[in-house]
Design brief:
The chain is of the alpha+beta class and 177 residues long. It is 16% helix and 46% strand.
């Protein structure tokens, strides 16, 4: 009976420790390739990208538990360009985010350049994460990304100021490929 009590206490303690750590994302929900559904995406104030353009995102699990994210933009002629690349844990801390320019500088230099662009992911629940992007320690974008419970739709609500200082609120919808 004592052994059963010890096993039961261990299970209860382990369950309470997992709950005490806060929300955790479903480990495999983001992993994979996602293609933007332009018909369901909205751009406010607009206009949307040219007809035939869309975005593709690829997420992979790092060996250390991080998520590697690569965003690509595809133009109407079907030619891709790198949007950004980052490897980060979903823990609310800031991690380096590379654009084409910072990646080219980093790869072309024997001395690692100072990276002034960061991204952080803060889990809000098992399906939702808040994403904060900074440039030179200033917030340039706050997004909320949600994966549907069935794991086939990803919706990202973006909030930022464009180059003219106008508030932009885009809702991007992606389907898992």
């Amino acid at each position: 009976m004592n052994r059963s009590l010890v096993v039961a206490m261990t299970i209860l303690l382990g369950a309470s420790l997992v709950r005490a750590q806060g929300p955790s994302l479903k480990a495999n929900s983001i992993i994979g390739t996602w293609k933007q559904n332009m018909e369901k995406s909205t751009y406010n104030p607009g206009p949307p990208p040219p007809k035939g353009a869309y975005a593709v995102r690829q997420y992979a699990a790092g060996e250390d538990g991080s998520i590697v994210a690569i965003t690509m933009n595809v133009n109407p002629q079907g030619l891709p360009s790198l949007g950004a690349v980052a490897a980060a844990n979903y823990d609310g801390r800031e991690y380096v985010q590379h654009t084409v320019a910072t990646l080219a500088t980093s790869l072309g230099s024997h001395i690692s350049p100072r990276i002034d662009r960061t991204i952080s992911y803060k889990p809000l629940d098992a399906y939702t994460v808040q994403i904060v992007q900074k440039q030179d320690d200033q917030i340039v974008s706050i997004s909320t990304r949600t994966i549907s419970r069935d794991g086939i739709t990803m919706t990202e609500q973006q909030d930022f100021a464009n180059a003219e200082g106008q508030r932009v609120h885009n809702i991007l919808v992606f389907g898992k490929q």
